[in-house]
Amino acid sequence: MVAEPLRLFDCCPISDGAAVIVLASVEVAKKYTDTPVFVAGIGQASDTMALHDRAELTSLRATKIASKQAYDMAGIGPKDVSFACVHDCFTSAEMIATEDLGFFKPGEGGKAASDGRTSIRGEKPINTDGGLKAKGHPVGATGAAMVVEMFMQLREQAGDRQVADAEYGLAHNVGATGGTVTTQVYRR
Amino acid sequence: MSVHSFIEGLKKSKLLGCKCVECNRMMAPPRMVCTGCGSTDLEEYCFEGKGTIKTKTIIYVPLKKFKDLNPYTVGIVELNEGPNITGLILGENESIKIDDKVEVVCFDEGEGNVLAFKLLD
Predict the structure, then answer these.
(1) Could B84 and A52 be called an inter-chain contact, meaning their C-beta atoms sit closer than 8 Å?
(2) A66 vs A48: CA distance, rounded Å
(3) Over its length of 188 residues, how does chain A's per-residue pLDDT go in tens digits?
(4) ipTM
(5) How far is CA A105 from CA A53, A111, A144, in A?
(6) Distance in Å, alpha carbon of B115 to nearest chain A alpha carbon
């Protein structure tokens, strides 16, 4: 037990690692590939530092605000997201994220995972690369690594992690235990 | 009002905060700027020091300074006056429950003083 009820495997390891993404204008990208991945929407929001100052303890308001910005910019809603990489620093964080992002109703995020709805073959694949918990969490590189997964999935290069018919991917990144959240929508 | 004055208050088991003169919001610990309306017209306020446990966890991977307490309970307490604050909750971990009533005590952890609560019978 680490911090009841979270046990060792409910917590991601803080790791070393690196990720690289190259951003370019559409014109420049098309010189290098016929299948670039497009940033369709972005959002960022902040909240209080202290947990005890938050309006709710089982939701991140910053996720709701940041994701609404990204969804609105991309012109889509949660139901259009083919797969998502969410900030699962703890199992509880993934449950809260999938609810805040609008994939499942409040209180249903955990059951959705244990029912298999978030598996690669499920209706809403979450963290197809293993997420922070299974892949590791090189703080800072984690967000960029999510974008790498977006890129691989949307170009059908994810091998046996490949989500079928991936059209829109969502990357969700948290800092300061919810003090800041960024969300982006990617499309092919 | 400062971190120093907050700690000095704590040593006397007083939980100091502030109240906004403009919007009446109460904050614990004291702040420089009202977290509600942004006013800097704040006056010191001494909380009663009593509240209810809103949520809690038991820590099994202690901070070095708390290793003698391991495992120990940390909780968010809703003070009777309204604001929430985080603190150690002292007592038998298994007997500490959400909705329990608590009151402030000062805990000397060797390197300084931290905010703690004990169960009210």
Answers:
(1) yes
(2) 15
(3) 999 999 999 999 999 999 999 999 999 999 999 999 999 999 999 999 999 999 999 999 999 999 999 999 999 999 999 999 999 999 999 999 999 999 999 999 999 999 999 999 999 999 999 999 999 999 989 999 999 999 999 999 999 999 999 999 999 999 999 999 999 999 99
(4) 0.89
(5) 24, 11, 28
(6) 14
Q: Identify all chain B residues contacting A1, using CB atoms and an 8 Å cutoff.
A: 58, 60, 71
Regarding pTM above 0.90, the answer is yes
Instruction: Tell me the Ramachandran region of residue A54: left when phi exceeds 0, alpha when psi lies from -120 to 50, beta otherwise.
Output: beta
- In chain A, which residues have their Cβ closer than 8 Å to the Cβ of B85? 52
DSSP per residue over chain A, as a string?
--BTTB-GGGBPPB-----------HHHHHHH-SS--EEEEEEEEE--SSGGGSS-SSS-HHHHHHHHHHHHHHT--GGG-SEEE---SBHHHHHHHHHHTTSS-TT-HHHHHHTTTTSTTSSS-B-TT-HHHHH-B-TTHHHHHHHHHHHHHHTT--GGGPPTT--EEEEEEEEGGGTEEEEEEEE-
CA distance A106 to chain B (A): 18
| Cβ separation B60–A51 shorter than 8 A | no
